[in-house]
Backbone:
């Protein structure tokens, strides 16, 4: 379900720096070499998880970087707090903001959104299910996935520790982001289905693209060249 248009979002003055929202955690490390290929060098402490500041200057005085939680990158861009961002396709699937344009697949942060179940349980035929309880931080994605099969997903919305849910009787299945599958295995789960393959995308606020087309267009071109490099 698309979010309502954020009426409070305001286009920044053209003389102010553009803001690039980057996700904390694993993908932030993968962003470094990619940003370097695009000729963008943020302040040295932008990858330091102990750094108290969240906004960082770069070698370009007209672009600053902010570091936020991965699920918040799309919200910052959709509401105009940042004009550009790097965001996993899983987040775009979940929120489906109409205010976001995603022109480039950056090819970094590869993983997948998957269904997992207890490894020791024999699963019956899902085509016979009418409902299933699922623990996930992707409630919209999970509901759409099962609704397409005529199954009602009774979603338990968690923000972490999904792997505990089946063993503690909170849910039958989980829908979560999987990279290697080692966390699932360590918690007695097995991957049963891949909902979507995920990589990180360059995302842009549509209003900002209209009001500052030359600046944002130039960054899109630089990121496209970095992909080719």
Residues:
């Amino acid at each position: 379900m698309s979010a309502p248009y954020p009426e409070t979002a305001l286009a920044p003055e053209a003389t102010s720096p553009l803001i690039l929202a980057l996700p904390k955690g694993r993908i932030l490390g993968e962003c470094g070499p990619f940003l370097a290929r695009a000729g963008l060098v943020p302040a040295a402490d932008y990858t330091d998880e102990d750094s108290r500041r969240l906004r960082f200057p770069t070698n370009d005085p007209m672009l600053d970087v902010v570091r936020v939680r991965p699920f918040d990158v799309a919200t910052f861009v959709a509401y105009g707090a940042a004009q550009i961002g790097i965001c996993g396709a899983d987040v775009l699937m979940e929120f489906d903001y109409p205010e976001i344009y995603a022109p480039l697949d950056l090819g970094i942060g590869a993983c997948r959104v998957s269904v997992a179940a207890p490894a020791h349980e024999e699963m019956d035929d899902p085509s016979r299910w009418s409902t299933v309880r699922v623990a996930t931080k992707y409630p919209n994605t999970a509901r759409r996935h099962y609704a397409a099969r005529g199954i009602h997903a009774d979603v338990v919305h968690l923000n972490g520790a999904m792997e505990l849910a089946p063993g503690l009787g909170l849910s039958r299945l989980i829908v979560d982001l999987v990279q290697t599958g080692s966390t699932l295995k360590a918690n007695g789960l097995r991957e049963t289905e891949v909902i979507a393959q995920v990589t990180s995308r360059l995302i842009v606020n549509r209003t900002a693209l209209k009001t500052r087309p030359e600046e944002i267009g130039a960054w899109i071109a630089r990121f496209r060249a970095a992909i080719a490099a």
